[in-house]
Amino acid sequence: xxxxxxxxxxxxxxxxxxxxxxxxxxxxxxxxxxxxxxxxxxxxxxxxxxxxxxxxxxxxxxxxxxxxxxxxxxxxxxxxxxxxxxxxxxxxxxxxxxxxxxxxxxxxxxxxxxxxxxxxxxxxxxxxxxxxxxxxxxxxxxxxxxxxxxxxxxxxxxxxxxxxxxxxxxxxxxxxxxxxxxxxxxxxxxxxxxxxxxxxxxx
Length: 203
Prior knowledge:
The chain is an alpha/beta fold. The protein has seven helices and 15 strands. α1 runs parallel beside α2 (24-31).
């Protein structure tokens, strides 16, 4: 929702919406006239497989001809996602190690969420014409009362990798953004340290 709100007030051009989940931010993008849905697949409509948000979101969705709710096979299949022009996928994650391995749902033996279509959208966007994949995370997290860096030398024991390092493109924290696509292991580590919280960079 925060990304959609910022896009709605930006000077960037128009957008197409192709997502797994429609939330309130999509309504704002539509209402500000930012959504054209000229994307090369399902043109003219915003596409999702489910919605989660406020009562206002559901009222807006009800019978709305500019939205199509489709099966997950039509929204998340990488072979379809690759057909979207300039497709930018934005996914949240919980931790990234210095090799670029990403944990989006399970860290240190604990399940925090589901994977959903994260990996499909990462791969599909990276291979779409003019596309890119962006993985976002806060630079720190508080676990058991302790403040920890989410960019870490190695993922905590028991963590499951959601996105392998060879699929990762952009990683973003509140301290910057880095494109890991063509970096060596050493260059990846240095780039990720630069966007870690300054309190943890020496570590």
